[in-house]
TrEMBL record:
Domain Protein YjdM C-terminal: 45-112
Organism from which the protein derives: Pseudidiomarina halophila
Family: Belongs to the YjdM family.
Protein name (database record): Alkylphosphonate utilization protein
Coiled-coil annotated residue ranges, if any: none
Pfam family, one: Zn_Ribbon_YjdM
Segments forming domain Protein YjdM N-terminal: 3-32
């Protein structure tokens, strides 16, 4: 029997296979052994399913209101040099020209 890899999220050695997926019984994390994994153990995908990486350029696919101000990030705004994070519900740290530093969700961007 082949040795299964440890869980990329909690490093538990008790992962087991369920079909094509691997599952950790300790933290309930599921992952595909063929899918590339980031350092945090999470893959980031845009609204179209393309994998995102640090330094990518993305385009906003929906008008986004900026909380606490009257500014709006318009559809089609290009955001260069994104940084992927695992903090809170927002996955992308970036700086948008004319607005400043922001956090975005991957579901509202597509890879440019």
């Amino acid at each position: 029997m082949s040795q299964l890899p440890a869980c990329p999220q909690c490093e538990s050695p008790y992962a087991y296979a369920d079909g094509a997926m691997l599952i950790c019984p300790e933290c309930a994390y599921e992952w595909s052994p063929n899918e590339p994994i980031t350092e945090s153990g999470k893959t980031y995908r845009d609204a179209n399913g393309n994998e995102l990486q640090d330094g990518d350029t993305v385009t906003v696919i929906k008008d986004l209101k900026v909380k606490g101000s009257s500014l709006v990030v318009k559809v089609g705004t290009k955001v260069k040099n994104i940084r992927l994070t695992d903090e809170g519900d927002h996955d992308i740290d970036c700086k948008i020209d004319g607005i400043g530093p922001m956090k975005l969700k991957t579901e509202f961007v597509k890879k440019a």
